[in-house]
Task: inverse folding
């Protein structure tokens, strides 16, 4: 799905693959990369009008992708898989993660400092662009579904049972935060150090969005509903945000989440990821 007017209108695009796709990231208004099952990596240079398959070198599912620039990016997935590219996704090289845990998310603060998180509370960190990855103690055993970095020292991770973790020292210590919900928080985003949102759902297909306005010291539920889980939330600044999920759900806000408005996606497929540039 693609929009050029902030989500007022969404248009279906052909990916050219039948594989499930889990995350998409834009490096500018025309270039994007998405990843999915069986090592699928697709790239576009024309805002999604055409998507081309890139050779990943793996058959493992790739769940998350992150770029720090038009050239440097990373993808992570099943069985401890970490891949990196230095040429915008044309070529991908495997990086040793030191674990067989299934990774669910990757985020970088710059070209050198990044984290990947996954099942059984797994967290690994790199300070050299992924040449070396080291384990960190999360203090939890639940699945961590997402990680979001603010800078080289500050990051957030979220997961099952309303789990929210934060670090202010590069991950030497991860501290549990009270989210105010027991939903599976599959997405967390901080457009700045003060304002953050997390979204997710439950096995009963109830969904929720929680937010903080004080850097994560306190979290408050903003919205909830039923009819499908939310799978992603993203903000471009402190006021403009979107969430996506089951049954083609897309929600948008222009007031920091005080009010969320449904948008018409034109599909009933699950929308696992949403990204704006």
Result:
């Amino acid at each position: 799905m693609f929009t050029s007017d902030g989500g007022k209108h969404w248009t279906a695009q052909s990916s050219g693959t039948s594989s499930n796709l889990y995350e998409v990231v834009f490096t500018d208004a025309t270039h994007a990369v998405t990843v999915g099952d069986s090592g699928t990596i697709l790239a576009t240079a024309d805002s999604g009008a055409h998507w081309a398959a890139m050779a990943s070198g793996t058959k493992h599912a790739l769940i998350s992708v992150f770029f720090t620039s038009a050239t440097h990016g990373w993808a992570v997935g099943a069985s401890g898989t970490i891949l990196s590219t230095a040429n915008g996704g044309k070529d991908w090289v495997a990086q040793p993660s030191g674990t067989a845990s299934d990774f669910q998310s990757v985020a970088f603060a710059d070209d050198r400092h990044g984290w990947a998180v996954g099942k059984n509370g797994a967290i690994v960190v790199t300070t050299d662009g992924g040449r070396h990855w080291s384990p960190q103690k999360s203090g939890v055993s639940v699945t961590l579904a997402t990680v979001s970095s603010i800078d080289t020292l500050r990051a957030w991770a979220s997961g099952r049972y309303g789990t929210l973790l934060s670090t202010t020292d590069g991950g030497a210590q991860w501290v549990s935060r009270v989210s105010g919900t027991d939903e599976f928080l599959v997405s967390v985003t901080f457009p700045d150090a003060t304002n953050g949102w997390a979204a997710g759902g439950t096995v009963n297909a109830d969904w929720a969005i929680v937010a903080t306005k004080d850097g994560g010291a306190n979290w408050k539920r903003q919205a909830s509903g039923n009819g499908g889980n939310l799978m992603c939330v993203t903000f471009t600044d402190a006021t403009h945000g979107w969430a996506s999920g089951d049954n083609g759900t897309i929600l948008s806000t222009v007031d920091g989440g005080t009010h969320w408005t449904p948008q018409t996606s034109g599909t009933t497929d699950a929308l696992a990821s949403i990204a704006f540039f």
In short: The longest strand covers residues 206-212.
